[in-house]
Task: structure prediction
Amino acid sequence: MDDKEFEYLKNIADICASKKRILILYALSDNPFLGYGSIKNIASQFNVVIGSSELYKHANVLIKHGLIEHIENKFIITDKGKEFVIGLNVLLEVFDDSVEK
Result:
């Protein structure tokens, strides 16, 4: 591993350090243009509470890494964010015992 790859791993760790960030990404991958209330409602379906200041804290991390954007009080997922979610889905297969290997 070189320095650049290690930097990428640090970014991935920063993004994945919170289940709320991952939940925001998945919510936006299913509905690419959501406001705070919609994200809060989706999170509550998974028994996850996200307050407004907390949502913006997590969203800012995702924005910093180029995975989402905040436009006119709505959040949208970027192409990079969509690719990140695809990568997470590949990782899910590692933990899914029902997937034939």
